[in-house]
Design a protein that fits this description.
This protein has 123 residues and is mostly beta strands. It has no helices and eleven strands. The termini are far apart.
């Protein structure tokens, strides 16, 4: 059974930085992983994703500010967030699929999700 555990959320001021991590258990090898976020009363949004072969996609709203990476040895996904803005405030989730199309990594079509970690950016 695949399980995900997000860590690293918290509160920062505008312009600050945070790093989220997502520890993956129950699966090894190559798989698709992504970070999503959901603000109150808004739809879940894909912000960064990595396909199995390594293709990386970012949403326009975070491009240039967020960096996704993964440590295959530690089986952990990261999201480095810089220059955070109040509109980045949301619950952040990581998600995993064994298969995906690279161009669809930011769509919420994942079978396994973490419980989420809250990020609050104050103005």
């Amino acid at each position: 059974r695949i399980q995900l555990q997000e860590l690293g959320g918290g509160s920062v001021e505008t312009g600050g930085s945070l790093r989220l991590s997502c520890m993956v258990t129950g699966i090894t090898g190559s798989y698709c992983m992504a970070w999503f976020r959901q603000a109150p009363e808004k739809q879940r949004e894909g912000v960064a994703g990595i396909a199995r072969e390594g293709t990386i996609l970012y949403s326009d709203s975070v491009k240039g500010r967020f960096t996704i990476s993964r440590d295959t040895y530690k089986n952990t996904l990261y999201l480095e967030m810089t220059n955070l803005q109040p509109e980045d405030t949301a619950m952040y989730y990581c998600a995993v699929n064994t298969l995906c199309l690279a161009q669809r990594v930011l769509l919420p079509e994942y079978r396994t999700w973490g419980q989420g970690t809250w990020v609050n950016v104050s103005s």
